[in-house]
Structures are given as structure tokens and as C-alpha cells.
Design goal:
- This protein folds into two domains: about 5-115 and about 260-310, Periplasmic binding protein-like II (D-Maltodextrin-Binding Protein, domain 2, 3-Layer(aba) Sandwich); about 120-255, D-Maltodextrin-Binding Protein, domain 2 (3-Layer(aba) Sandwich).
- The protein has eleven helices and 14 strands.
- It has helices at about 5-20, 45-60, 75-80, 95-105, 135-140, 175-185, 200-205, 220, 245-250, 270-290, 300-310; strands spanning about 25-30, 30, 35-40, 65-70, 85-90, 110-125, 130-135, 165-170, 195, 210-215, 230, 230-235, 240, 255-265.
- Helix 6 (about 175-185) links the parallel strand 8 (about 165-170) and strand 9.
- It is α/β, with parallel strands linked by helices.
- The radius of gyration is 20 Å and the shape is elongated.
- Helix 1 packs across helix 2 (about 45-60) and helix 2 crosses helix 10.
- Strands 3, 4, 5, 6, 8, 9, 10, 11 and 14 form a nine-stranded mixed β-sheet that branches.
- The chain starts with a helix and ends with a helix.
Length: about 325
């Protein structure tokens, strides 16, 4: 997802770091590294972790094999709590039931915030009638038992054309967050929509359907702005478009949210995992912007690094 022209300076620095580490280029921060790191979870966070993994691979001279998958936040936590992965990408906080599953399996974890996101509400670029949608309207469209079938069911002045819906699957943290924010109850949603844990599938669906309505993470809209149109959302204080500024300020409400990674504490005893997470926090601000999300303020990354150091220092 990161364009080559935007990665050149960072990659050049990382190549120097790797070269300074020794003949095999497998040192980062003066420490020889090797091994394998397993990451799974949110498709929303996936582009960030993938970008970090790519740069970390360069910095370690390919001595560390880092794999990044996306089975959705819920699917990622299932694997994580079973001890199958080192890091779980998440677009929502871990649920109480998932935390209990981790506890039963003896999996302790550290939650680290890495970025901000806004859930974009998308239509086909040729849609010239919808510019803004209110929270009550979104609820009427997506709630269980919804009777909304055509666009004019939302507003009488909109066309009497079938409204076709696209959204994340039920294993997705984006699904959980959207349903909680819009319906007021997590997991409450009509089932008759095209669902996928792969946001690229949703992009293609909305792009190819003139009367589509969908929602997914801001980065996937930002990367495909010529193929999609984002609606403004009125959360009660007027219509607001999703932008880095409105997401950071929280005025794009209630669809702004933090993005996290969960790190298995036992994995931090392995140098390659500890250094990868350090590297993640060091490079996050630049890479988060490059893949289309909104970075945290520098002080937040420093605070997360301090929490990581406090945990890793005891291991």
C-alpha cells in the first residue's frame, strides 16, 4: 500500500541501520536478531502492521520472518488467546469474553495504541443525491429488522432505487465498533448485506455498484478516493466529513476510534519480538500516515514505549 516514492527516505535509513549491525545485516539496535513473528487480526490495522513488518525485514537483513494476516479482530483474538500468535491487531478493545479466554489459556498481554481511524461511510462516486447522512438514518438502514429497501426509504427525495449494502463481517472489530456506535448495541445489525473481512473486497463492491452504501476504515477510502465517495456524517452537531483533522479532533463523531496492537507478554522474552514492537512504536508516526491513517501525537508514542519498556524490562 505504501508507494515507493514515499518510502525511499525511510528505507534508506533502515538499510544503513542494517548495514551497521554487522556482516549479516541481522542486527537492529546493536542486537543480533533471528526467528519468526506471527501477527493476525484486524484488516483495518493490517496495512500498518504490514508496512512495519516490511521495513523491519529490511532493517534485520531478512533474518526475522514476520508474517501478517487478517482474519478480523475477533478471529485474531481467537488465535492470540490460543497462544498461536505473538501480536494481535485490533480495531476495538478486547472484549470481556475474549479476555477471559486469554486468562483461561494463561495468555497475558499488553495493549498498545498505534493510530487513530475514522469509519468512512461510502457510496459510488456517481451518487449525486447523498452528501450527508445522519446517525438516526444510518441506524434505520443497518438495524436488525430494518425495513429500508430503497434509497427513498431513507429520505423521500432520494431515488426509489434498491439500496445495496456492503460492510465488514461479524469477526471484524470494525463491525463491532460500528454497531456499538450507531445502534448502541454491539453486534446488532441486519444480516442481508455483502460482508467481508477483507476491506479491499468491500472497496470493489461499492465501486462496482451505483446504488451501494458501505462502511470501512478510513485508509481504504483514502487510498481509493478516485473510486469512492465518502458521505459526511451528522452525529448531532452537523455534517462532518472524515479527514485526518476531524478524526484527530474527535469532531467526526461517533465514528472516530483508536487502533491497537496486543502483544503477548511471553513473546516479549524473545529479542526479535521485543525489538519489533519497539520498532513499531518508533516508526509508527511516519508509516501510519503513509498508509492513510492518522498518527497519534508524539507524546502518546513515547508513553506507549515507556509502558513497553516497563514490561519488557522485567523479563
Amino acid at each position: 500500500m505504501i508507494e515507493n516514492s514515499r518510502r525511499t527516505s525511510l528505507t534508506a535509513v533502515l538499510v544503513v541501520l542494517a548495514a551497521c549491525g554487522g556482516g549479516d545485516g541481522a542486527q537492529v539496535g546493536g542486537e543480533a536478531l533471528s526467528g519468526r513473528i506471527e501477527i493476525d487480526g484486524s484488516s483495518t490495522v493490517y496495512p500498518i502492521s504490514e508496512a512495519v513488518a516490511e521495513e523491519f525485514t529490511i532493517a534485520t537483513g531478512r533474518a526475522v520472518n514476520t508474517t501478517v494476516a487478517f482474519t478480523g479482530t475477533g478471529g485474531g483474538f481467537k488465535r492470540f488467546c490460543a497462544g498461536e500468535t505473538d501480536i494481535s491487531d485490533a480495531s476495538r478493545p478486547i472484549k470481556e469474553s475474549e479476555a477471559e479466554l486469554c486468562a483461561q489459556s494463561g495468555v497475558e498481554y499488553l495493549e498498545l495504541r498505534v493510530a487513530l481511524d475514522g469509519l468512512a461511510v461510502l457510496v459510488h462516486p456517481s451518487n449525486d443525491f447523498a452528501q450527508c447522512i445522519t446517525l438516526p438514518e444510518l441506524k434505520r438502514v443497518w438495524e436488525p429488522g430494518s425495513t429500508v429497501k430503497i434509497w427513498s426509504d431513507v429520505r423521500p427525495e432520494w431515488p426509489a432505487e434498491a439500496i445495496r449494502l456492503y460492510g465488514p463481517g461479524t469477526n471484524s472489530g470494525t463491525f463491532d465498533y460500528f454497531t456499538e456506535a450507531v445502534m448502541g448495541t454491539e453486534d446488532a445489525s441486519r444480516p442481508d448485506y455483502t460482508a467481508s473481512e477483507d476491506d479491499n473486497v468491500l472497496v470493489q463492491g461499492v465501486e462496482g455498484d451505483r446504488f451501494a452504501l458501505g462502511y470501512f476504515g478510513y485508509a481504504y477510502f483514502e487510498e481509493n478516493q478516485q473510486r469512492l465517495k465518502a458521505l459526511q456524517v451528522d452525529g448531532g452537531a452537523g455534517c462532518v466529513a472524515p479527514t485526518p483533522e476531524t478524526i484527530t479532533s474527535g469532531t467526526y463523531t461517533p465514528l472516530s476510534r483508536p487502533l491497537m496492537i496486543y502483544v503477548r507478554k511471553a513473546s516479549l522474552s524473545r529479542p526479535e519480538v521485543r525489538r519489533f514492537v519497539e520498532f513499531y512504536l518508533e516508526q509508527a508516526a511516519e508509516l501510519v500516515s503513509q498508509v492513510g491513517y492518522v498518527p497519534l501525537e508524539a507524546g502518546h508514542y513515547l508513553a506507549e514505549r515507556a509502558r513497553l519498556d516497563a514490561e519488557a524490562g522485567g523479563r
